[in-house]
Write a structure and sequence with these properties.
Blueprint (H helix, E strand, L loop, with lengths): L2 E5 L7 H17 L6 E7 L1 H12 L7 E5 L13 E8 H11 L3 H16 L8 H21 L6 E5 L1 H10 L6 H10 L4 E5 L9 H10 L4 E5 L3 H10 L3 E4 L19 H13 L4 E5 L3 H9 L4 E5 L1 H5 L2 H20 L3 E5 L7 H5 L4 E6 L1 H10 L1 H15 L1
Helix pairs in contact: 1-4, 3-4, 4-5, 7-8, 15-16
Length: 392
């Protein structure tokens, strides 16, 4: 959704909270069939919204939400035709109303966003009682829809079970079995299983891939390098999707994103070959504009944004990399790519990434398998799923 958020409150909400509100705004835009329109959402305080209320509505005092529709250039001269308008919400009033109604602030902000969107689309509650009742009914309908299926628009959690195979390969035996692990992950709520069939077969084996193709009930995502042998196996087995990743023999794990710009011709041929056989392709890339545009140009269906630099840093540097991921996700979504993300995500750093509105799925492996050594795989998956769904 082409939504822009700005904060003009002296005590702004936490970044994770704003990202959560943005995801709810994105859900509303989809539900109201205006996801391609531009909207500006401003969170401010009572003093500013009172001034706007006086200037534009000739009414004294603060209100909870104001909407200014960008129609015929009356409010925003020179704005592009795709603009829907602006929604301004007083966080002060929203918090006060939430306390009075016994709601969470998130619930109140969702209602104010819904109210604001409906005003931008021409709904009104001041002209007549009938219109007021119709608008209220529509708001309640949106709230009910979100409570039932809003999770659909939250990011899904896919589990990488490579490191179950790593433990198995350490002894060269049969246990633990990544096929069994995948079934446990799905039962715990995972929406996908990810495996990386490397050329050196250091963990996942062909046997694992073939059995998982038969047993996975959600979605099987095969990570792989663009090597002829692995491409042939993928075409034979037919996973639900393929994620092309860079692969170096000496690396412990994938060390960065694909350079799609430099390898455009080769990767375009691989993408076309796989997708011609009905296998959608994702490209694991760094969150950079040039890489995203190149991914779109060569026909990828998905991109998976590399979150390693975000995960490896702290403080301001981490926030800088998070902003890069947010910008990259927004760009990729505008270009028509489905956006996934992963690498280095754990129980302490996943929530801010999960709250990015455009991200469809998170791929997490090492942190969950490590946690499972202490609490069990089912619980480890459910704990991570709770983080993802709460952030969304």
């Amino acid at each position: 959704m082409p939504v822009s958020f700005s904060l003009r409150h002296p005590k702004p909400a936490a970044p994770a909270t704003i990202r959560r509100w943005r995801r709810r705004a994105a859900w509303l835009a989809r539900a109201l069939a205006v996801a391609e329109r531009d909207v500006s959402i401003v969170f401010t305080n009572d003093a500013e919204i009172a001034a706007l209320n006086q200037n534009y509505r000739l009414r004294e005092g603060a209100t909870n939400v104001l909407s200014f529709a960008a129609l015929d250039g009356e409010v925003f001269p020179g704005q592009p035709p795709g603009d829907l308008g602006e929604i301004i919400i007083s966080v002060d009033t929203a918090a006060r109303e939430a306390r009075q109604l016994g709601q969470s602030l998130d619930a109140r902000v969702f209602w104010l966003l819904a109210h604001g969107f409906l005003h931008l689309l021409g709904w009104d509650h001041e002209n007549s009682q009938a219109e007021a009742e119709a608008m209220r009914a529509k708001e309640l309908e949106l709230i009910e829809q979100f409570s039932k299926n809003g999770r659909y628009f939250m990011p899904k959690l896919a589990i990488n079970v490579d490191h179950i195979a790593t433990i198995r390969q350490a002894r060269g035996g049969h246990e633990p079995d990544p096929v069994t692990a995948a079934a446990i992950c799905e039962l715990a709520g995972a929406k996908g299983i990810v495996i990386h069939l490397r050329e050196d077969r250091r963990h996942i084996q062909e046997r694992d891939l073939r059995l998982l193709r038969q047993t996975v009930k959600t979605k099987l995502n095969l990570e792989m390098g663009a090597a002829k042998e692995i491409i042939a196996i993928a075409l034979e087995v037919g996973p639900d999707m393929v994620t092309l990743v860079p692969e170096k023999r000496r690396e412990l794990t994938t060390e960065g994103g694909l350079d799609v710009v430099a390898g455009k011709m080769k990767l375009a041929a691989v993408v076309a070959r796989l997708q011609d056989e009905g296998i959608p392709v994702s490209l694991f890339i760094d969150p950079e504009e040039a890489q995203i545009e190149a991914a779109r140009e060569i026909g990828a269906t998905f991109v998976e944004l590399h979150t390693g630099k975000y995960a490896d840093n702290k403080g301001e540097e981490r926030l800088h990399h998070l902003a890069q991921i947010e910008a990259a996700a927004a760009l990729a979504s505008r270009l028509g790519l489905i956006v996934n993300a992963g690498h280095g995500l754990d129980y302490g750093n996943t929530a801010p990434v999960a709250a990015i509105a455009e991200i469809d799925e998170l791929s997490i492996g090492h942190a969950i398998i490590s946690r499972a050594a202490f609490v069990g795989l089912d619980k480890a998956v459910r704990e991570m799923l709770a983080i993802v769904e709460t952030a969304g």
